[in-house]
């Protein structure tokens, strides 16, 4: 099939590349000229594991192409995916200006039947709005489908190629049949393509993300309570997670959820509720607990230094919002570092992939280390914000030699507290006793 993808970010590029991998002719459109130029030169503009191999293969096979011309995109695709940003607006709602702007342009350019697929995360009713906007501009026949994306950054290629489910929201038999044909190669192991109405599809995405954010937040509260009563959240997590009704995943406590999705999507669903005269009490709490959780290490650090961190030097390991990505959107590390800088601390930072993005945001207010050990030279403490694998088994002796004092504040519970007892560190983590 001929496919166009409008918006070539984390979702659009993965979608385009994976659809090319199954033999489709894909044209990816982006407004960012520099990004398009890079991709035309064969450079993947984001860090996403395993994407480079597929990207290269499909460009070589001439199934994957890039352009800045929306006109070309509209002409090329029988199916046109919108993978555009839907960032948080000032009132917490999803900003639909990118999606509706593209819809208007599509309305002006469309010459024959097309299926317009909304892959962006959008509030209930957006498919109707997109239909209305396009209809105002043209009499040409088209269908709008809601097809929310559930991929995770860091696992995006695998998630797209082997999805646990595909949700298609459509009231058109013609569009549904095309979408089922397109996705058939991705569900050969029997995972379902669930067809439903547009509104339910739109809500499914917000419900899934908000549920997962709630699950994490619940565990963060249990962790905070563990610290009060001397219980160990790792044990509680294992004890709970073995109940298949609860499940083992997304029970890891830490310094809050971040990223480009959970924070904005929870807020957007909460705001949608408000707009429909419904108060999501649970989501209200999730938002508030997560706000506090992002900087939960700060009072611990301050208290260790008798409320004076002015002039202290800290190493910060892990800046991306989670491992295996260079994405720093709503990364808890940002909130932690801003508080530490405001308190007068100096920071030596390291992340395997997110350094360029952090440099763009923080400029010369941070010291950027070449590797994880360099970051710890002459520091008063090490602060861990993201659980990259390379941080999991450090050379503790080397760390002790590098650091002014052996102190670790771990926001992601990387180390076994029993093993840490023999390493000679002051080790404070989340929901577990402090090793002194
Ligand atoms: N990132 C994820 O893991 C993920 C997963 C599932 C769903 N989503 C949702 O998918 C949507 C896209 O997210 P993302 O993370 O890929 O965003 P992104 O910011 O990485 O990418 C968006 C791209 O769209 C481009 N763009 C902006 N305006 C444009 C226009 N008018 N025409 C063409 N291109 C334009 C930008 O230059 C950028 O490259 C959002 O709604 C998000 O909530 C994201
Ligand atoms: O047990 C856990 C699991 C995750 N997190 C945090 O939660 C955030 C989100 O993690 P994850 O869900 O792995 O990353 P995303 O790439 O943001 O993916 C989420 O958001 C995407 C965008 O909507 C969806 O498509 C995915 O299904 C959904 O998992 C990160 O800050 C993690 O550190 C925890 O704190 N504890």
Automatic annotation (TrEMBL):
The keyword NAD applies. The keyword Nucleus does not apply. Residues 315-417 form the UDP-glucose/GDP-mannose dehydrogenase C-terminal domain. It is an enzyme of class 1 (oxidoreductase). Pathway: Nucleotide-sugar biosynthesis; UDP-alpha-D-glucuronate biosynthesis; UDP-alpha-D-glucuronate from UDP-alpha-D-glucose: step 1/1. It holds the Pfam family UDPG_MGDP_dh_N. It catalyses: UDP-alpha-D-glucose + 2 NAD(+) + H2O = UDP-alpha-D-glucuronate + 2 NADH + 3 H(+). Keywords: NAD, Oxidoreductase. Its EC number is 1.1.1.22. NCBIfam families: NDP-sugDHase (TIGR03026). Belongs to the UDP-glucose/GDP-mannose dehydrogenase family. This is UDP-glucose 6-dehydrogenase. It comes from Gaetbulibacter jejuensis. The lineage of its organism: Bacteria, Pseudomonadati, Bacteroidota, Flavobacteriia, Flavobacteriales.
